[in-house]
Amino acid sequence: MTLLVALLSLTAACGGAGADMSATPADDGPAKPVALWGSEGGFVTATTNVLRPPRVVLYGDGLVIVDARRQLRLTGAEVDETVASMERYLTGQPPTATPRPGAPMVTDVPATVLGVRGKDGKMLEVRVPALDQVAGFYPKELSDAKKLMDGLATRAAASGTDYVATRVRMVAEGAASAEGTPAPWPAGVPEPSGTVDPVWRKDVEGAAVKAITKAVPAGPEHSRSLFKTGSGALFVLSWRYLLPDE
Asked: How far is Cα 97 from Cα 135, in angstroms, rounded to an integer?
């Protein structure tokens, strides 16, 4: 009897009959990009620089987001194929590529950023200055990587859906000398506070998202972007939806 009790106790302790085998899934946090194509730098406005999302970002679950405006879903096989191709194109490239001698001097244009998450879990990124202008002076693999990601952008434009999120990044840029009649600052949208140098940025969620998306039409061009705060200051107000990993 003593031996039987001992065996039953050991069985229960090791997860045998009657043991609670349920488990709570681990929270892995926000979705992680596995491939991306974007740009940085260049002669752009402060608002553009702050709001600029990756041109294309692919997440491990197959979600593709283009310009934080369009989205589509890839199959697992397509994700694997895309990541493998990007790894092949970018492995061995320097963090910042340099064109071969003889390339013309190009200034004030954004640098192309290409990235892929390797098998070690780390994001490998390559920056390519003026890739569009002097592509022939760079290794062909860099243009191939961009073309692959551009293909996803084309698919999203043709057969994807609008991307929306529950969180928004808003940017207010001072416009003291702007022409036009400003609208009153939209109710429910936080007003700029502190230093605006040269823009004021804030990530918002909840009711503020509905308020700003209603007050300012989506897209880079809209007619009611100029607003006056309660204190009389003028700002151009812009926004975009935040990505899952932001």
From this structure: 11
